[in-house]
Amino acid sequence: MTENIASKLKKLTQEYVSLWQEKSGLPPASQDLYGVPSTCITRTGDEIVYWLPQPFIGIHKLEKVEKAMGITIRPELHDYFSTQFAGDMQVRFRNINFSLIQIWSEEDFIRLQENIIGHLVTQKRLKLTPTLFIGTTDSEKDIISVCNVSGEVILETFGQKKKEVLAESLSIFLSELTPIFDE
């Protein structure tokens, strides 16, 4: 499982980097990450940062989330969030364009875990099935998540029971993503 998720995520990232290099002659760029330290940074421009993926160097995965929430997180989610440091990537799944969440740095990994805990606390309070988000959409309420019970990738409306199954597994989902050049 570990190699499967890691290899699919690395392959997608390489496709994303290649697309950027083909279209712009440069690595992927982000204005949102300008001024935020990371080993991914290859160069900076006028309020923009260019990046390339780097190996995840942390020894911990999502154990702090598990401990805080008293749950076991699916192995593929541990693998997804501890494969690499990279900037978020614009991708398409069928007719849905969204930003695939990535870890930018060790500090970002800590922030992500805090956000996941907050998300899970809200779900627990509302008696919803626990999910971990992996993507954001243009809508402020709709997110791409992985169900921690079934392993399905879903489009869910935050804080509501409304959800649409997109793929039966994270592995299948990653295989079907197409990078988007969004300068």
Would you mind describing this structure in some detail?
- There is one protein chain.
- The chain is α+β, with helices and mostly antiparallel strands and 183 residues long.
- 34% of the residues lie in helices and 27% in strands.
- The protein has five helices and twelve strands.
- It has helices spanning 2-24, 63-69, 75-81, 106-125, 170-175, and strands spanning 29-30, 41-45, 48-51, 54-55, 84-85, 89-93, 96-100, 131-136, 142-147, 153-157, 163-167, 178-179.
- Strands 11-10-9-8-7-6-12 form a seven-stranded antiparallel β-sheet.
- A hairpin with a 5-residue loop joins strand 10 and strand 11 (163-167).
- Helix 1 (2-24) packs parallel to helix 3 (75-81) and helix 2 packs parallel to helix 4.
- The radius of gyration is 16 Å and the shape is globular.
- The termini are far apart.
- The model has no long low-confidence stretch (mean pLDDT 94).
- InterPro entries: Syd (IPR009948), Syd_sf (IPR038228).
- It holds the Pfam family Syd.
